[in-house]
Amino acid sequence: MVSCRGTIFLGLIPLCLATRGGCHGSSSDEAATPVGQTTLNAAVIKAAIPSVAAIEQDEQLVAAPAPTPSACPAGMLLVEGEYCPNVQQRCLEWMDPPGPYQYFRCKRYAKPAECKGAKVHERFCIDATERTEPGSDLPMNKKSWTLAKGICEADGARLCMTSEWNFACEGEEMRPYPYGWERDATACNADIATGLGHIGRLVDHRAAASAHPRCTSAFGVHDMAGNVDEWATVDGAPKGTREVMKGSWWMPGRNSCRSFQGGHGASYGGTESGVRCCKDAP
After folding, report:
1. Residue 127's closest CA among 230, 204, 207, 211?
2. Using CA atoms, how far apart are residues 17 and 24, in angstroms rounded to an integer?
3. Torsion-angle region of 75 (φ positive above 0: left; ψ -120 to 50: alpha; else: beta)
4. pLDDT tens digits, residue range 8-38?
5. Residue 80 CB neighbours (<10 A)
6. 71-282, what's its fold?
């Protein structure tokens, strides 16, 4: 066995620094015998050992993977997976007293939801947040279906189909709310019951797109419950019945992923009506 103190390896050849006794071969039954001694000057040692900075630079080059190109443009998220067109979500507890709104808001749903029929594969891009006013973090409002459609198309996108909107909101778990199975009035800009005004003269309670970080779906899409209603197009519906609003707004509405507001028509644009766009993914 060879014992070397202060050994530097140049390639595969060990060189020993000068030490008292040099490098020795030894065994259990014989005395150590000097086999040689090499003195290295500082220049040789410096050339043989790379600098710490060089080592760290090499490690960073090896450790840093090449960035993966996104399938969606900036500001959009990829939604891909198996979507259930016909889902059953059973409410276990309603929030409101008997009356016209008794079955309006569900406090708690049964988990898991049940898919009635075959699922279909979906792959598309969707805005991570509601479209905001220029120079502001507030979502756009007072937009009709027609205006919202034009805004999306001017950006090379389109209004979401209701199936796409549903899937981006509920994910493959088929969540009733984007954030889960129990209604949480603090998660999103919703359930504001006072100071609403009235239809045609609503008080503006919009919140900034970044104001409710917990109001996020499984795909990372923000504010799919509350804040502003978002225009979407009903799959396969004829003109005049295809224009609906999804997500509800800041009032105590349904706010569930599958619910929608219809009947306003393509030209309606109120204080509560906003814009979110989708786009085909490559």
Report:
1. 230
2. 12
3. left
4. 333 333 333 333 344 333 333 433 334 444 4
5. 15
6. paralog of FGE (formylglycine-generating enzyme) (3.90.1580)
